[in-house]
Structures are given as C-alpha cells and as structure tokens.
Amino acid sequence: MSAPDAYGQGILITQETDPPDIPTTARNLAAGLVPRSVMRFTSASARAAALVGDSAPVEGMVSYLADVNRLYVYTGAAWTEIATRGYGSATLISSTAQTSAEISTGLAVTMATKASTAYRMTVSGLLRSTLVNDRVDLIIRRGTTTAGLQVGGAVHFTTVATTGESVSGVGTDTPGAGTTTWTVFLSGVGSGLVDLTASTAFPALFTVTEQ
C-alpha cells in the first residue's frame, strides 16, 4: 500500500511490497508535486478553467500568470498577488548626437507594470552645450517618441559649456497594468547645441522603481 512522504506533503510513495503499477505511481507523483509547485497559466481565465473539480485550488497553491507577469497565492478564498517590486535601469556610456531640438538620449527602460501603482524615475548624467548658460530640458516620456506623455524631467541652464556638468531629473508615472517603456529625451531650448555625454567613469543612468 502506498505510504505518505516523510515531509507531510501528502505525496503517496509506492512501496516495494506494492504490485507494479506505473500509471498509478505517476499519477500519485503528479498529484502530489504539481499543486505544490508554481503552476503557470496564460491568464486568470485559463487558470480558472484548469483548476476545477478534483483539481480545485487549495490554500497555499502558487500560480504565475504570463499575461500580467505576476505571482499569486491561493488564500483558501481567493487568489492574491504576491507582492513584488519592479525595478529597471539603463546605462549610457557614450555621447548622444548634439541637437537644438528634442532627441532621444538612448536611455530607455521597459518593464512590466501594475494597475494603480506609481513608478518613480530618476535620470542623471553629464550635460554639455556649445553655449554657456544655455537652457536645456531633460525630459522623461512614456513611450519611445517625442509625442509620448511627459512624466518627468528637469530644466537646466548650463554653466560649463565644453566639459559638461552633472545634472539630474526625476518623475513619477502611473501607467496601469501591462508593459511600459519610458525614454529620456534631451531638448536644446536655447540657441546652443546640447548633448548628454557619459564615460565609463561617469555613465548616464536612468532608473525606474515601483513605489
């Protein structure tokens, strides 16, 4: 007769005295191991369709939903998301093309985002202009184009035109559930040509952190 495992997890182990029965042994192992592993589903509806009847969820089950990139635990009454904090970063170790218009700096972060959750963005680097005291806008936009919603940034007036000076910009955004990309843009509002330069010793950094 099959006996329970030594860890109290309800997995039935075939004994040497049991008659050979490979299908039953395999079913016992699957029934004991699968509900205690991280089960993967394409969506919540797919999970609900699969976990019914004898396979209905029980307290402690963990599942992963691919469409929202989330982990959930079953409390005995409902599936509850396992709290995690998203984080993304990008590093620039070369200069962007100089411009007097708005251009992408090459700094962009793409990550899975949650509904009703705020994300904080921080960008820093060395700003350079061909004109001392030139006005430069450092802009953080949702998306990859200059038409994207501005969700952060800063306005600077360069005091060192040739070698560059340290600058930073911040912002917050609540994009909703899904996958979101944020991009850092640079705009030369004044009459000089500007760029966001960087080096191995002083890279330009862009980080996004879930709040």
Give a structural overview.
The chain has 211 residues and is mostly beta strands. 9% of the residues lie in helices and 45% in strands. It contains two helices and 15 strands. The chain has helices spanning 22-33, 44-50, and strands at residues 3-4, 12-13, 38-41, 62-65, 70-74, 79-81, 87-92, 102-113, 119-129, 135-142, 150-157, 165-173, 178-188, 194-197, 204-210. The strands form three sheets. Strands 7, 8, 9, 10, 11, 12, 13, 14 and 15 form a nine-stranded antiparallel beta sheet that branches. A four-stranded mixed beta sheet has the order 3-4-5-6. A two-stranded antiparallel sheet has the order 1-2. A hairpin with a 7-residue loop joins strand 1 and strand 2 (12-13). The relative contact order is 0.19. The mean pLDDT is 85.
List the helices and strands and how they pair.
Elements: E1 3-4, E2 12-13, H1 22-33, E3 38-41, H2 44-50, E4 62-65, E5 70-74, E6 79-81, E7 87-92, E8 102-113, E9 119-129, E10 135-142, E11 150-157, E12 165-173, E13 178-188, E14 194-197, E15 204-210
